[in-house]
């Protein structure tokens, strides 16, 4: 349920704290659950005032009633106006835990006109109900709806190849919705064998360090652990199998690609094999080299950052340094296990 | 120069390594530079084949010529076809360093029809030239162009409130473009005074830990350093001034808000003031408390993660533990300073 996962529990976002200032959509129900089942129950909760009972039909048609008379899946409002019937159409949606609303992405009208009118009516309805942040997911196939949402005052929040998420902040106060993800996470792998030889690569990089021998590096995959990403990158680029020993340092750089930031974690790895198989797509060449050959390259002599990183890695290898190790722990906030990286302590 | 910053130097993305597998837009020119000046020089570079010289006019009109005759800002192609004149219209764009193309976001046609035809022609032209990744930035005001780009095969890449970035991968091989940013970066602040009292808060959080006294936490701002974010959050939530001592641990959690991950860094801070001023927008209450009062809360007794974090912080405070300190270093890749976090070593 990609759709639902996109609106998962904020508490997971901060496994040993909560974030009152960040109003991220959250479904009050957890675990595996049926989306449409939930969406209507949430819609019920969302649109149910004290004064009347409301119900949804499968066609997202909402009608309030004093006396409920089923009518081919459509419920009809009959206030105290004799035989007159009032029917209002809103987008299907459910509450989040922050006084906001999550529009059901699987039930948006396919026609631009229908979407425009329903969105307008829904926004008025949410305003009347004092809702705060509105979350709207629009898939690639629904791209015609994007300009309409923007027209109504939605802003982009973030995007993945197949969809864009838009938000609308109703209160007349600064927006409390969280910003989009800000960082990429990379690794640099220091792999040293029993002969004190270090695994280095030459990259097929058009923009920098041509011919420089350097540590294997890369970015972790979605939901990948840092130590797993380091092991995978080394295997992919050089064919060498490794195990993770410790994380010895990390660099925080800003205003990098897309005005975003990145964190790169330097990992000390122990090789389990020595034979090198170069990944020709990414790597020009790879080899085992001595510390002197590595650091005596002119590039390293001129690069304060790389020099310091190699010094720290050598100290870690020679046990003069203790970096962070990954410890899997359960958090009460989400009942899940995640990794806490820290140095082994005296109590362990 | 938001527009240009969005396409800044990939090398910054990996200050002591390069990323051949990631084809992020990069302007070959660096430093402060005039956008339009650059865009035309890049357009020149982009569209200039061996066989003929090309030039742009201010109206994004591209024409190839054998003999250059200026014509009110419009250059005209006159191949070997006598007096016949050929005029082709393409989107203004420039090369990135990865064989890709960055469309000039400030020169998109305002009319949807003009954009549709020019985009189609440009894609054919880029294909002919063997280009790889195409980067297209569309602002809120240009939202009508989004469905057209999607129609032509573009996918969403990422978004900020005011714009969405779309990409198009031309080669008939797996896309080598980087994914959108994947992580949010948070902090948890352990502030302990000379009486061994710890600064704790109760959050106005609708979703979890009601009434629980916990460490001040928050997310760092765009381009903010981790240690600065910790100091700022403590000041904002409690009014207490602090200095950063060390980063003692961090937690890596996955599939959190928006299917993204987060890293939360636990920072040991020394208070410079003791008086508490609660930020009523975010915080229910704040106080100085004893270690026993903090950890004896039922919530902490049941939360493996929080318990371990407090133990590590106390060991760090009692100097039985050395976490990471931020060291500002220059990288040769971007000539910029960024922070490398690591433990003080014997050589320092």
Automatic annotation (TrEMBL), chains A, B:
Family: Belongs to the Nudix hydrolase family.
Keywords attached to this entry: Hydrolase, Metal-binding
Molecular function GO terms recorded: hydrolase activity; metal ion binding
InterPro entries in the cross-refs: NUDIX_hydrolase-like_dom_sf, Nudix_hydrolase6-like, NUDIX_hydrolase_CS, NUDIX_hydrolase_dom, Pre-Nudix
Name this protein carries in UniProt: Nudix hydrolase domain-containing protein
A Pfam family per the record: NUDIX
Span of domain Nudix hydrolase: 182-311
Superkingdom, natural source: Eukaryota
């Amino acid at each position: 349920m990609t759709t639902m996962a996109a609106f998962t529990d904020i508490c997971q976002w901060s496994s040993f704290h909560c974030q009152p200032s960040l109003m991220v959509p959250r479904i009050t129900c957890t675990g595996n659950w049926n989306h449409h089942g939930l969406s209507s129950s949430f819609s019920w909760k969302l649109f149910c005032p004290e004064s009347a009972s409301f119900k949804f039909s499968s066609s997202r048609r909402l009608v309030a009633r004093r006396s409920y008379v089923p009518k081919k899946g459509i419920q009809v409002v009959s206030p105290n106006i004799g035989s007159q019937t009032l029917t209002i159409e809103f987008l299907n949606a459910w509450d989040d835990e922050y006084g906001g609303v999550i529009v059901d992405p699987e039930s948006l009208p396919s026609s631009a006109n229908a979407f425009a009118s329903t969105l307008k009516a829904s926004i008025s309805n949410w305003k009347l109900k004092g809702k705060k942040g509105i979350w709207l997911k629009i898939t690639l196939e629904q791209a015609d709806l994007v300009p309409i949402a923007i027209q109504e005052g939605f802003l982009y929040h973030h995007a993945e190849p197949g969809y864009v998420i838009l938000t609308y902040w109703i209160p007349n106060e600064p927006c409390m919705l969280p910003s989009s993800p800000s960082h990429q996470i990379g690794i640099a792998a220091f792999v040293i064998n029993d002969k004190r030889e270090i695994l280095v690569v030459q990259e097929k990089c058009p923009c920098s360090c041509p011919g420089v021998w350097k540590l294997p590096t890369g970015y972790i995959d979605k939901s990948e652990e840092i130590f797993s990403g380091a092991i995978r990158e080394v295997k992919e680029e050089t064919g060498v199998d490794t195990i993770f020993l410790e994380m010895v340092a990390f660099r925080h750089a800003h205003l990098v690609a897309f005005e975003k930031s990145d964190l790169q974690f330097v990992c000390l790895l122990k090789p389990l094999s020595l034979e090198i198989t170069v990944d020709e797509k990414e790597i020009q060449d790879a080899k085992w080299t001595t510390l002197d050959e590595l650091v005596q390259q002119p590039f390293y002599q001129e690069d304060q950052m790389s020099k310091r990183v190699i010094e720290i890695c050598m100290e870690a290898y020679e046990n003069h340094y203790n970096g962070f190790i990954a410890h899997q722990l359960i958090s009460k906030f989400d009942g899940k296990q995640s990794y806490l990286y820290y140095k082994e302590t005296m109590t362990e």
